Amino acid sequence: MTASLQQFIESWLFDPTVGTLVSTIATLLILMALVRLLKRILNRYVREPGNLYRAKKMVTFLGYFTGLVVISLIFSDRLGKMAVAFGVAGAGIAFALQEVIASLAGWVAISFGNFYNTGDRVQLGGIKGDVIDIGMLRTTMMEIGQWVNADLYNGRIVKIANSFVFKEPVFNYSGDFPFLWDEITVPVKYGSDYRLSREIFQRILVEVTGGYSTQAKASWTALIQQYRVDQTEIDPRVLLVANGN
Question: Domain containing 38: what range?
């Protein structure tokens, strides 16, 4: 009984398949340890949040890529033999995971198509908020609005599948032209000096938003060079409308 058990253990230990699996697991564990170590080093030396986020994402991506390369090299001889089986199973897997595949394609489109970046304020899938992370399958947003007014955070973190970039419009409030027009309605009663009211409102607008106008003009000039748009009025304006109120 002891001899049989010893022969079984020896045959199992010296089995090429077992050795391949052990070496693969050991390599992946070493890669995971290196990725964690590099992230800790980045936390220590990179202070700017945006650069730290991008550096960590790059380290994670390189870790995944290196892991896939290592697995492909270790199982290269077996992958060729299993090509037919993979081909047969591929159609069924693609149908079952079509949403996952669409999300991966969405991640590629977001990464290279300039849909949005981390830190941008967007509306995606009917949800408005600031993008705080772009994963391979989902975009994570800090939501604004809903039961909170004035475009403030409401505390909810929303994860939206990247496939939504192919299904619905993507509204980017921080895109090529990072400014929005807004309108404030102030009623002025009949019989009052509307000319003086207009001068007061115009003076307040210039004082409050004058600095933004200069930046907006520069952004609009850059927008004209990139898209088919014409010059427009950027400075703050006061418009008067006579109505029943």
Answer: 2-81
